């Protein structure tokens, strides 16, 4: 009953917070009192829904999601980071995503009228997620809130990775895939997830509750990469540096899962057409037959990261083991590949 009374105001909240256009949300900082009230009511609604009996809030979450989620996301983008309300607004957004089920995610994705509208939403939410892990709104000692936020972001990224594959592969949207990779890698490399920097007790608490989210995210990135198909070459060598940062994270299973991506990049460039517009582009005579762009980028980025104190002997040994094995077992790339790895 308490929720029902408050839910009558959901549509009004959206009007006060702003419509679905960024231009109208730009005045948020001049509406502090009204926005504060809206955020407080939304927060109360989400708290009530969270403690409600399981399965009883599907329609309620749907109403909140379709009515105010986009506005909350855009308000988060527009709001000054110095505002005392930004933490509460982010908490509302995280709470909505936390309580959304697979049914809700699918419904939300399908409610966009056009692919362009869906793409705009994905660009917004990936921007918000990347910003939240790059410039946290919560103090570092709020570890429980930060880990909860991270678990919800990871859950959402998993759903959105499938959305990108389903809607933006056939009619390929480079920016959607590119933004996903950069958002996911920023998420994976954020200080709050670097378990090796924590005490054994804190590390155990985090892993027992949330698992190692770096590993989980790395597996998702790997899956996305190998789903790129013929579009992989568009990301070589531009994402080499970001992927290298990911593989340097000191987690063995993550490294084993992601280092082979570099060999795949080598193959992509090696077999790509020297002249993509030539009629003989499928002819063996038209392939590049080298991976010099990848190699140059890899060496330059690795030098920079090592100078910055990244990397370790374990990484060097594992990289050599994995890459050497892949190169030695590939008849065409064997000679060039072994030479590259050995240097």
TrEMBL record:
<dbReference type="GO" id="GO:0005737">
    <property type="term" value="C:cytoplasm"/>
</dbReference>
<dbReference type="GO" id="GO:0007520">
    <property type="term" value="P:myoblast fusion"/>
</dbReference>
<protein>
    <recommendedName>
        <fullName>Dedicator of cytokinesis TPR repeats region domain-containing protein</fullName>
    </recommendedName>
</protein>
<dbReference type="Pfam" id="PF23554">
    <property type="entry name" value="TPR_DOCK"/>
</dbReference>
<dbReference type="InterPro" id="IPR056372">
    <property type="entry name" value="TPR_DOCK"/>
</dbReference>
<dbReference type="GO" id="GO:0016477">
    <property type="term" value="P:cell migration"/>
</dbReference>
<feature type="domain" description="Dedicator of cytokinesis TPR repeats region">
    <location>
        <begin position="27"/>
        <end position="322"/>
    </location>
</feature>
<dbReference type="InterPro" id="IPR026791">
    <property type="entry name" value="DOCK"/>
</dbReference>
<dbReference type="GO" id="GO:0031267">
    <property type="term" value="F:small GTPase binding"/>
</dbReference>
<dbReference type="GO" id="GO:0005886">
    <property type="term" value="C:plasma membrane"/>
</dbReference>
<dbReference type="GO" id="GO:0005085">
    <property type="term" value="F:guanyl-nucleotide exchange factor activity"/>
</dbReference>
<dbReference type="GO" id="GO:0007264">
    <property type="term" value="P:small GTPase-mediated signal transduction"/>
</dbReference>
């Amino acid at each position: 009953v308490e929720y029902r009374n408050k839910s009558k105001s959901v549509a009004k909240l959206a009007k006060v917070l702003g419509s679905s256009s960024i231009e109208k949300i730009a005045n948020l900082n001049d509406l502090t009192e009204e926005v504060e009230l809206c955020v407080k009511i939304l927060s109360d609604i989400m708290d009530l829904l969270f403690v409600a009996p399981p399965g009883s809030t599907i329609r309620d979450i749907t109403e909140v999601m379709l009515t105010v989620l986009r506005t909350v996301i855009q308000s988060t983008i527009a709001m000054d980071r110095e505002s005392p309300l930004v933490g509460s607004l982010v908490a509302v957004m995280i709470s909505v995503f936390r309580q959304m089920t697979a049914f809700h995610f699918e419904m939300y994705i399908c409610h966009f009228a056009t692919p362009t509208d869906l793409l705009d939403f994905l660009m917004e939410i990936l921007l918000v997620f990347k910003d939240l892990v790059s410039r946290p709104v919560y103090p570092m000692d709020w570890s429980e809130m930060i880990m909860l936020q991270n678990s919800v972001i990871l859950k959402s990224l998993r759903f959105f990775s499938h959305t990108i594959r389903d809607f933006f592969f056939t009619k390929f949207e480079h920016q959607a895939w590119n933004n996903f990779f950069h958002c996911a890698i920023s998420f994976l490399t954020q200080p709050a997830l670097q378990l090796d920097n924590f005490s054994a007790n804190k590390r155990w608490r985090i892993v027992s509750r949330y698992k190692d989210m770096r590993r989980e995210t790395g597996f998702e990135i790997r899956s996305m990469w190998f789903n790129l198909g013929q579009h992989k070459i568009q990301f070589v060598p531009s994402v080499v540096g970001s992927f290298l940062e990911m593989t340097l994270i000191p987690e063995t299973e993550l490294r084993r899962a992601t280092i082979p991506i570099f060999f795949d990049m080598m193959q992509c460039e090696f077999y790509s057409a020297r002249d993509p517009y030539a009629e003989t582009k499928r002819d063996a005579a038209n392939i590049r037959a080298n991976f010099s762009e990848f190699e140059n980028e890899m060496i330059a980025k690795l030098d920079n990261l090592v100078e910055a104190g990244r990397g370790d002997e374990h990484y060097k040994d594992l990289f050599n083991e994995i890459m050497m094995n892949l190169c030695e077992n590939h008849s065409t790339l064997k000679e060039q590949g072994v030479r590259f790895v050995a240097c």
